[in-house]
Design brief:
single chain, mainly beta, six-stranded antiparallel beta sheet, elongated
């Protein structure tokens, strides 16, 4: 059994635009564009084939991706597993000594049900399996949230819109 280091980072980018029109003696049009990004990283050392629980610090649901190997290349597609905001997932790496590691990402979430017995909890679980190259950051989940606002007055108006994208990336390395 080998130790595997799983690193998870959340990379967030914020694309926002602001446009405005002012009347009178002021300039006619003003436009601002900005892009900010930030990331948060966590690490877990785990035995090959053993699960580890990882948390996410998000305010929007994350859609996990699915990956597979086709003609010797890793192909990633949008999956059907959604993680609730502020939750996490269980990661189980399986490495056979090659250049790729199989990573199972499992989500387990509590069900909201009024008919449960006192003290009992109902849960629902689902998983996604990816084939990842060792020692490379790979996108395994994503979310996107957009917002718009506008103001108007006697001297003009402004509109502001933005899109916040969050990517969950994983890197697995042998220790």
């Amino acid at each position: 059994m080998r130790n595997l280091l799983i690193e998870v980072r959340q990379v967030q980018s914020d694309d926002s635009q602001r446009t405005g029109v002012e009347l009178g003696n002021r300039p006619g049009v003003q436009m601002n564009q900005s892009r900010n990004s930030g990331s948060a990283t966590q690490q877990a050392l785990v035995l090959n084939g053993r699960p580890v629980r990882l948390g996410l610090q998000t305010t929007t649901p994350i859609r996990l991706l699915q990956g597979f190997v086709r003609n010797g290349r890793v192909v990633t597609t949008v999956g059907t597993v959604l993680l609730e905001a502020g939750t996490g997932f269980s990661a189980t790496p399986r490495w056979d000594g090659g250049a790729l590691v199989e990573l199972e990402l499992a989500a387990q979430q509590a069900l909201r049900s009024g008919s449960a017995l006192p003290g009992a909890t109902a849960t629902s679980g689902t998983s996604s399996v990816l084939a990842l190259p060792l020692d490379e950051w790979t996108r395994v989940g994503e979310s996107e949230q957009s917002s718009q606002s506008s103001t108007s007055g006697l001297t003009g108006g402004q509109q502001q819109s933005g899109v916040v994208r969050t990517e969950v990336q994983v890197r697995v390395s042998v220790r």
